[in-house]
Amino acid sequence: MAHDSSAASAPEPTLSVLVYSDDRLVRQQVRQALGRRPAADLPALEYVECATEPAVIRQVDGGGFDLLILDGEATPAGGMGVCRQLKDEVYRCPPTLVLVGRPQDAWLATWSRADGVVGHPIDAVALATTAAALLRRRVSVSPTS
Q: What domains are there in the chain, each with its CATH number?
């Protein structure tokens, strides 16, 4: 019986998630809430963390992200403003989830054209559920190789 070594050496598919917050604890909470996989039916996640707006713009301009998670409470550039800018300027901008400080801020997330909204303090179940839904949509519309 022949052994197919190419199947064993093929890398596991992953999804790339950018997490933006000026607060490293928020970035850590997001990573912990989502873990390696937010849902069993999705590939593993790889994270890129950004603490500044210029870093986010540079990373997103480079492409390759499946989900952006932006902290609406970040300073000096809040995630909602960054989201709006990315949606206006990036062709086929990846799905974007914005973390808002108050439930009343959900309308601002709509203005920013966010694809999903989760409140602070971060609810791990709500974040994983929302992120998984956005990632599933992304995976289902990705071109096949």
A: 13-139 (3.40.50.2300)
Q: Which amino acid belongs to residue 115?
A: D
**Contact (Cβ atoms closer than 8 angstroms) between residue 122 and residue 29:** yes
pLDDT tens per residue, range 62-116: 999 999 999 999 999 999 999 999 999 999 999 999 999 987 787 888 889 999 9
Angle at 35 between CA 113 and CA 25, to 5 degrees: 70
What is the residue whose two structure tokens read 């602070």? 120
For 94-109, letters b (16+ CB in 10 Å) and e give: bbbbbbbeeeebeebb
- pTM for the model: 0.89
Euclidean distance between CA atoms 135 and 94, whole angstroms: 10
Tokens 């956005």, residue located: 134
